[in-house]
Design brief:
The protein is an alpha+beta fold. The chain contains ten helices and 24 strands. It has two domains: 239 residues, Sandwich (Immunoglobulin-like); 127 residues, Neutral Protease, domain 2 (Orthogonal Bundle), CATH 1.10.390.10. A hairpin with a 3-residue loop joins strand 9 and strand 10. The structure holds tryptophan and zinc ion. Keywords: Aminopeptidase, Hydrolase, Metal-binding, Metalloprotease, Protease, Signal, Zinc. InterPro entries: Aminopeptidase_N-like_N, Aminopeptidase_N-like_N_sf, Peptidase_M1, Peptidase_M1_aminopeptidases, Peptidase_M1_dom, Peptidase_M4/M1_CTD_sf.
């Protein structure tokens, strides 16, 4: 409801703004232009549930983020440089950005004009960009970032200032609260970060350090690089006082744990469990997709965690094995394999929830079968059975059914195809779509191919029917 209503209202506003813009009016000399310039990139990437998220007309390959943040004043000064290529001719294109003041925009190093309308930054390069052409866009901006908090079901997310820094967790569409981007998982890109903070404060982003931090004039710059494609909602620049523990897992994956001093006693268990669980998942799901693992515990009482790529972020609690197992399973399911549309969110959350049950099974505490049976005892009136998890609703994206019934779907599949095929399927799924995008239809097709069974009725009952499966 929130997204739909707001989206439709904003779309109407934007269309009228574009239609009134003199540059878009038909002129006898501008061949091929009509009342609304067909060469204007769309203000949404095409997810019907989130019509204003992401943008059309280009594909980002890399973000270079320079962020200067001062916790005491909460001021952020940023320069974002984006490498992209046009997927159509572009007389203008949009980026997503909430609040903050844009000082300057350049396309291929030439000044570009721009307008702001709600969460859309429309950039008009001096000359149209040809279809297929690579281009760079640089945006200089600053201000006081404000988190997104417009949905009771999502709570507060995005760039969240804290007393000693910032807690940055942006799913589903909060990265626009701290840098201009194409804010939808359908467009993944690699990232470089240079985060400058007062000396004594640590900045933690995705991937691995790109060189030692450098300090001058009382400010320290931390450089990080995520060299594998990443959805914008997984990008982080979490800032604050942190104790760190570095090393590597038994299997040799670099491991970095960070904890706010208030959670110092969690640091060793976070480090050890993250290493053990990463290595275990590699035996179940196939090779770990990224170049490092770990986690961050910050003193912000989010009450939740987010699977930020390479560095899950835990908000104000000591994470136990179950939640670490969940967030690290997302590194395969969600982060390496990324949904193209939010409606397929069970491919993230159902898998990560099922991973929790697999971890308990692995530890000999409880089988997934026992968990499944227990949940199957819920009466037909339980709200979980009314919400089909195969179609996450934009006004209730993270509904418990997407997690729990999504996980149950995988167990029902496991029962139907047997353990050998099921576990072969998990690895094949992760391998076939490594670093790519996925849909529910693709998962069903692979399950049918590997099992040789017609599974349409099973998936229909578990994913799509608003009632308890028989
Ligand atoms: N994906 C998270 C999980 O299941 C939950 C989540 C959704 C979240 N939106 C968020 C966490 C925003 C932090 C911020 O682990
Ligand atoms: Zn999750």
């Amino acid at each position: 409801m929130r997204f739909n209503r707001r989206g439709v209202a904003m779309l109407a506003t934007l269309v009228s703004v574009l239609a009134c813009s003199p540059a878009d009016e038909p002129t006898p000399t501008a061949a091929g232009q009509s009342a609304v310039d067909r060469r204007a990139g769309a203000p949404g990437i095409g997810d019907p549930d989130f019509p204003r998220d992401g943008n059309g007309g280009y594909d980002v390959s890399h973000y270079d983020l320079a962020v200067d943040y001062t916790p005491a004043t909460k001021r952020l000064d940023g320069v974002t440089t984006i490498r992209a290529s046009a997927t159509q001719e572009l007389s203008s294109f949009n980026l997503d950005l909430t609040g903050l003041d844009v000082r300057e925009v350049a396309v291929d190093n030439a000044p570009a004009t721009f307008t702001r309308q709600s969460d859309e930054l429309t950039v008009r390069p001096a000359r149209a960009i040809a279809d297929g052409a690579p281009f760079t866009v640089r945006v200089a901006y600053s201000g006081l970032p404000r988190p997104a908090s417009d949905n009771a079901n999502l709570g507060t997310y995005g760039f969240i200032p804290t007393p000693d820094g910032a807690f940055v967790a942006s799913e589903p569409n909060g990265s626009k609260t701290w840098f201009p981007n194409n804010d939808h998982p359908a467009d993944k890109a690699t990232f470089d970060f240079a985060i400058t903070v007062p000396a004594g404060v640590t900045a933690l982003a995705n991937g691995e350090p790109a060189g030692q931090p450098t300090t001058s004039g009382g400010r320290t710059t931390y450089r990080w690089r995520e060299r594998h494609p990443m959805a914008t909602y997984l990008a982080t620049a979490t800032v604050g006082k942190f104790d760190l523990r570095r090393g590597s897992t038994a299997a040799g994956i670099p491991n970095l744990a960070a904890a706010d001093p208030k959670f110092k006693s969690s640091l060793d268990s976070l480090y050890t469990l993250s290493g053990q669980i990463t290595d275990h998942w590699a035996t179940v799901f196939g090779p770990y997709p990224f170049s490092s693992t770990g986690g961050v515990v910050d003193d912000y009482s989010a009450g939740y965690a987010l699977e930020n790529q390479t560095k899950p972020l835990y908000g104000g609690f000591q994470p136990d094995e179950t939640i670490i197992a969940h967030e690290l399973a997302h590194q395969w399911f969600g982060n390496s394999l990324t949904i193209r549309r939010w409606k397929d969110l069970w491919l993230n959350e159902g898998f990560a929830t099922y991973a929790e049950w697999l971890w308990a099974e692995h530890k000999g505490r409880k089988t997934a079968e026992a968990t499944f049976k227990e949940l199957l005892n819920r009466p037909a009136t339980d709200p979980m059975w009314a919400y089909p998890p195969g179609r996450a609703k934009p006004d209730d994206l993270f509904n418990q059914s997407v997690y729990t019934r999504g996980g149950m779907t995988l167990h029902a599949l496991r029962r139907a195809v047997g353990d050998p095929t099921f576990f072969t399927l998990l690895k094949a799924w992760a391998a076939e779509h490594r670093y790519g995008h996925v849909t529910t239809e693709q998962f069903v097709a692979l399950a049918e191919r590997l099992s040789g069974k017609d599974l349409d009725a099973l998936f229909d009952a578990w994913l799509h029917q608003p009632r308890k499966p028989a």
